[in-house]
Specification:
- This protein is an alpha+beta fold and 299 residues long.
- The protein folds into two domains: 3-166, Cysteine proteinases (Cathepsin B, Chain A, Alpha-Beta Complex), CATH 3.90.70; 177-297, Tetratricopeptide repeat domain (Serine Threonine Protein Phosphatase 5, Tetratricopeptide repeat, Alpha Horseshoe).
- It is built from 13 helices and seven strands.
- Strands 1, 2, 3, 4, 5, 6 and 7 form a seven-stranded antiparallel β-sheet that branches.
Amino acid sequence: MFPQTATVRGGLPEGMPEQVELRQVPFFPQAEYQCGPAALATALSAAGAHVTPEELVPEVYLPERKGSLQVEMLAAPRRHGMVSYLLEPRFGDVLREISAGNPVVMLYNMGVWSFWDAWHYAVAVGYDYDPGNMILRSGEIERQEISFPVHELMWKGSSYWAMVVMPPDRIPATAEEGRWLSAVAALERTGDARNARTAYQTFLKRWPDNTNAEIGLANTLYALGDLPGAEGVLRAAALRAPDNPIVLNNLAQTLSDQNRDAEALPFIERASRLAGPHAQAVAETKQSIVSKLAAQRGK
């Protein structure tokens, strides 16, 4: 009946302590129906953001539903310079994140003992393995203890939904390369190039050969006006991935924007031969470079 609890009860991974409580995590008692803003303010504040539940209400609270949807909960941290990460639906991953110092926003169905759903966000801030208890910031209770089986029963109702909020210079303990890159890219898409740059730099320290992360980092440097920095990242990427048309196109564009079109031409010509689904973008870049070179020769 409690498969996740049974798996965890098989033993903690080596090196994980049997007792953890993140006492420094702040507590925001929720207003009526507004557990989402309260839980998110808790996680954001723990990550270093200065925000209150009241400020988050217009970002995540839906009055007609008297609650917050998961998509809003994941999107809101990016507006505050943070990276949000949806955990895999595994109890062990929740414990690993807490052990690493990261509070976990959990979605529970408190209506498991009734005939209707009662959705509730809480923040897991600790566990005590021997008696099998979770420690939560929940609703109006600063420190609530619930047993592992009760935790699982309520958590199961949300299909084991849980998330962490991370500053851009840190990576979750359970992060997987592709999924974490997607989370960083989602921060970049908000237009927050400065924090996205930090997140990509941090990512590349862990996974230094990820070409897509190098492209993302170069994009943020470009957006911040650091064209030489973007060029350096793209040149390194081109050495590792010489047949990547996005790398070649972006490197050619970055060189062209520094008025070095003659240097850019060989890269965009290589990109043209490899363009595939990116053919239109590459063709536009090439046309711009060729036109600029023609204009220079005509002077």
